[in-house]
Amino acid sequence: MKNSNLFWGGILVALGVIFILSNFDFLNFNWWGIFRLWPMLLVLLGVTLLPIKNAIKIILTLILLAITIALLLTNTSLYQGRSYRYSWDFGDNNDYVKEYKRSDQSFFEPYSSDIEEATLDIEAVAGEFIISGNTDNLVDFRQDGNIGPYVFSTNKNGNHQYLKFEMQNSHFRMKRLINDVDLQLNDDPVWNINLECGAAKIDLDLSKYKTRNIDIQGGASSTHLKLGSLYAKTDVKIESGASSITIAIPEDSGCELTTQTVLSSKNFDGFTRLEKGLYQTDNFESAQNKIYIDIEAAVTSLKIRRY
């Protein structure tokens, strides 16, 4: 038995139990606790490289696993290292009333025919992010939820428009968090999209847009991404923790896929494996439009389909 498999299997069992306890309010837990334990991965890697017998490696791995589980269950700093309670002024000093208050925000940026390229940056904590269609503006942004507010900033450099939506520095409570973001984009310019979030549901239909770069960084996420073939070269970068990732690519586009995953299920429709972690579609060399996808994820269900 590989000691790395033993370690990851034990972590999955521990996390499953913790999340069940958390769902029934027996335990206060959030993903920041996992993120703060990332140095354990370095320790595990060091153990696998030690010139010692496998039996000793297994014993050391079990000890590391026990320490990790103990930290997840008992170290309160893993839960209380960040404060997540918004101090909105709703005219009511009752914090429990504030938690369930919902408000919405809307922003838009007018479109100008001289805009050839646009970069959209969204920084958030968690929620649901959807691109639902086209707009005559450059961008329409609407948020409905009980956290916020978002701050919108924009600037222009020549024919390139930069758009940024970020959450104002506030404190909010993770329990029953609601943050639904609906975006509509203009289909004329070339788009660069950068999305940084924690636990999130991401559904981006970009099949009708010219996309140059797509960068998604998330914690525990469910990501559905549909790409088009309207631009010669599209680069996609996805980094996430435990996640479900589904990507749809056009049949007439060539695609190269690079993956670095741990404990993941993979389903790559129409791809040929060139080497470990590197795949290409059969039409990659001959295709006029090319898509390059780079995925780094932990426990992941990864599926790529062609349409």
Label this structure with key terms:
globular; alpha/beta; 307 residues
Verbal overview:
This protein is α/β, with parallel strands linked by helices and 307 residues long. Helix content is 22%, strand content 43%. The chain has helices at residues 3-23, 32-35, 39-49, 54-74, 77-80, 95-100; strands at 103-109, 117-123, 127-134, 139-145, 150-157, 160-167, 179-185, 190-196, 200-206, 210-217, 221-227, 233-240, 243-249, 254-261, 264-268, 271-275, 278-281, 290-297, 300-306. It has a ten-stranded mixed β-sheet with strand order 5-6-2-8-10-12-18-14-17-16, with no helix packed on it. The protein is globular and about 65 Å long.
Secondary structure: elements and pairs:
Blueprint: H1 3-23, H2 32-35, H3 39-49, H4 54-74, H5 77-80, H6 95-100, E1 103-109, E2 117-123, E3 127-134, E4 139-145, E5 150-157, E6 160-167, E7 179-185, E8 190-196, E9 200-206, E10 210-217, E11 221-227, E12 233-240, E13 243-249, E14 254-261, E15 264-268, E16 271-275, E17 278-281, E18 290-297, E19 300-306
Parallel strand pairs: 2-6, 2-8, 3-7, 3-9, 8-10, 9-11, 10-12, 11-13, 12-18, 13-19, 14-18, 15-19
Antiparallel strand pairs: 1-4, 4-7, 5-6, 14-17, 16-17
